[in-house]
Write a structure and sequence with these properties.
By secondary structure, this protein is of the alpha/beta class. 38% of the residues lie in helices and 20% in strands. The strands form 2 sheets. It has an 8-stranded mixed sheet, sandwiched between helices. It has a 3-stranded antiparallel sheet with strand order 7-9-8. Helix 3 links the parallel strand 5 and strand 6. The longest helix is centred in the first third of the chain and has 15 residues. The two termini are 28 Å apart.
Length: 285
């Protein structure tokens, strides 16, 4: 099977440069791929490769990550991210599309779909739900990890050890992607973050980055089929929350991947791809 290559594009969104990647044919059903708090657009590469024969995949680097600009005001909150996606959607002329969102990107996806039910045809949420970023042991773990994040590294081996230390079950392919896309050579030697890690940590310490967003209200407001994918080893999305969402909102169903934690698409990409491929419609409804 031929490998689909991505194209890279940079546009101005809300006064900042926003880079997005694109795979697939322009006339295929579009899917937005929204990454998590400490991630980047290219984390979706294996998923985009697998779906590029049937869908148009669009993955932005959120502000402060990847090749998108850092926000000098450190304005890293859900409402700002939603505004960025609204502007990107308008710029690309998208009318109807699906969204796949992981963790922070899942919060953006819930919020966007609730706000724009006429646009979103299907929703896939990876390992986040109401209360995940405030009331779980995973939320406390992430705050602790970010507080202990080194500002720079002396070598790529130190980068490798850092990510392996907080992600012990990460696959080799996902680890290589994370090393390549989260650091860059520093001018004075060693490696520095390609993510605005200090700004993101500051925003996270100040409280729930979702701010005034009520995810239960967003779940109630959904008007499209929604699949929530949970990692069975996740400390961030309790199974009980998935059950409650499905009881409360008939459009929600959920699935669990046994050999995965919070990063399902990294820990077991084959299972994640299978679930997403079977769920997303091959044609726009």
């Amino acid at each position: 099977m031929a490998i689909a290559t991505s194209s890279s594009h940079t546009v101005q969104i809300n006064g900042l440069a926003c880079r997005f990647l694109q795979w697939g044919e322009a006339d295929s059903p579009p899917v937005l791929l929204l990454h998590g708090l400490r991630s980047y657009a290219r984390t979706w590469e294996p998923i985009a490769q697998a779906l590029s024969g049937s869908h148009l995949l669009i993955a932005p680097d959120f502000r402060g990550r990847g090749e998108s600009a850092w926000d000098p005001r450190r304005d890293y909150r859900t409402d700002i991210y939603v505004s960025d996606i609204e502007n990107l959607v308008a710029l690309l002329g998208l009318n109807r599309f699906a969204i796949v969102g992981h963790s922070m990107g899942g919060t953006v996806a819930y919020t966007y779909a609730a706000k724009h039910p006429d646009q979103v045809t299907a929703l896939v949420i990876e390992d986040i739900g109401p209360g995940s970023s405030t009331d779980t042991s995973g939320a406390a773990r992430i705050l602790s990890e970010m507080a202990d994040t080194p500002p720079r590294f002396g070598s790529l081996e130190q980068v490798r050890a850092y990510w392996r230390g907080i992600r012990p079950d990460i696959t080799g392919e996902a680890l290589a992607s994370r090393i390549e896309n989260t650091v860059r050579p520093a001018r004075d030697g060693g490696y520095e973050w390609r993510l605005d890690m200090a700004g993101i940590a500051e925003a996270r310490r100040s409280g729930d980055p979702a701010g005034a967003v009520d995810l239960w209200s967003c779940v109630d407001a959904l008007r499209c089929p929604t699949l929530v994918i949970r990692g069975a080893r996740s400390d961030f999305l309790p199974a009980g929350t998935c059950e409650q969402m499905a009881r409360r909102q008939p459009l929600v169903r959920w699935a669990q991947v046994s050999e995965a934690g919070h990063y399902v698409h990294d820990d077991d990409p084959a299972a994640f791809i299978d679930l997403v491929r079977r769920f997303l419609p091959a044609e726009l409804p």
